[in-house]
Amino acid sequence: MTRVFEDDRGAAFGTRAIHAGEREDPLAGAIMPPVYLTSTYVQQGLGENKGYEYARGKNPTREALERTIASLEGAQHGFAFSSGMGCLDSIMKLFQSGDHIVCGENVYGGTFRLFDKLLQHLGLQFSYVDTTRIERVADACTPNTKAIIVETPTNPLMQITNLSAAADVAHAHNALLIVDNTFATPFFQQPFSHGADVVFHSATKYLNGHSDVICGVAAVIDDDIAARLQFIHNAAGAVAGPFDSWLVLRGIKTLHLRMPQHDRNGRSIAAWLAERMGAERVRYPGLESHPQHALACAQMTGMGGMITVDVGTKEKANQVLKKVRIFSLAESLGGVESLISHPASMTHASVPPERRAQIGIGEGMVRLSCGVEDTDDLLDDVEQAFAGL
């Protein structure tokens, strides 16, 4: 029997997560896609090959991941990169000197660093706005605006952007809407259904889910954008390695099982923190106190495991960080294990202090990435770590 899944978009998410990238292994019928650890391919003659010439251009293992992410995001084309930042840097090569980009003011610190320290010096122009206020996004657009870039939910303030409204603004200015879907994942949010043009992820996070790889992915519907990005992918060379691609593929096969548990733990811990610390200190879209709670419920099918809580001062934050037992103090997020971090000195340390203060990233903020451990154990850990605050 031939094992080829034809990527039927009628199949449910979990089925596509497991099978969408598959192609029959011609040698042994391996159930998992083989890891093609090769830099080049034998050709039958001049201009004659099996579709592969050099691994920077195409690799069968990477293609399996790319087919999978395209299917899960509801796109036609997928791309796998060596990191999330390599992915975003390649996407930005779609633009040229003089182009203007409207960007959310609260984005990952590495995103701001790339734009502020590198790309603006190459001639790209950036305006940073609160994308929860769509009128501010529209006001920031100019005749040279070529893209609007948003995270939703944002890191670490957990703000929600109305994607349909943002798409309307972008398209009214003949610009692209580019969405970082890392926090929500395609399991909880489908940006293309709201008008997005490019969707990307740090696949290091939830897609991989096991904290053992650095990788980025992007998905595109439009054939012309895809052709341009494919050229950049090969020419600039920030491609995902075959083993990294395989690790992300392995992780994606359980994404639909992991995300509901991340969500259950996130909701439970956010509710506990809101009751004990005060709802105004806790940022989690699943809480009714969240200013964009209704929008989150309309736009997302789950709220995930990311929570930010403000304990007041850096000293109090450090107390919590030192007391946790199951949560580990570490960079990153989205793994099966629970992590805790201090955004001001970790994920957003590259953002100048005055800018952090302006957008609301305080020294007392602690960010939790709730893993998939038993909920009661995580609650016990949070209770003892936050005791006395």
Summarize the structure.
The chain is an alpha/beta fold and 389 residues long. 37% of the residues lie in helices and 14% in strands. The protein has 2 domains: 13-252, Type I PLP-dependent aspartate aminotransferase-like (Major domain) (Aspartate Aminotransferase, domain 2, 3-Layer(aba) Sandwich), CATH 3.40.640; 257-385, Alpha-Beta Complex (Aspartate Aminotransferase, domain 1).
Question: How would you summarize the topology of this molecule?
Answer:
Blueprint: H1 13-19, H2 60-73, E1 77-81, H3 84-92, E2 100-104, H4 109-118, E3 125-129, H5 134-140, E4 145-151, H6 163-172, E5 176-180, H7 185-188, E6 198-202, E7 216-220, H8 223-236, H9 242-252, H10 255-277, E8 282-283, H11 293-299, E9 306-310, H12 314-323, E10 328-329, E11 339-341, H13 353-359, E12 365-369, H14 375-385
Parallel strand pairs: 2-3, 2-4, 4-5, 5-6, 10-11
Antiparallel strand pairs: 1-7, 6-7, 8-9, 9-12, 11-12
Helix pairs in contact: 1-2, 2-9, 10-14
The biggest beta sheet reads: 7 strands, mixed
Stretches where pLDDT is under 50 for at least 5 consecutive residues are none
Which homologous superfamily in CATH is the superfamily of the largest domain? Type I PLP-dependent aspartate aminotransferase-like (Major domain)
**Would you give the CATH topology of the largest domain?**
Aspartate Aminotransferase, domain 2
> Measured on Cα atoms, how large is the radius of gyration?
21 Å
- Count of helix runs: 14
Gross CATH architecture of the largest domain: 3-Layer(aba) Sandwich
Give the distance, in angstroms, between the N- and C-terminal Cα atoms: 62 Å
- Gross geometry: globular
Order of helices and strands: HHEHEHEHEHEHEEHHHEHEHEEHEH
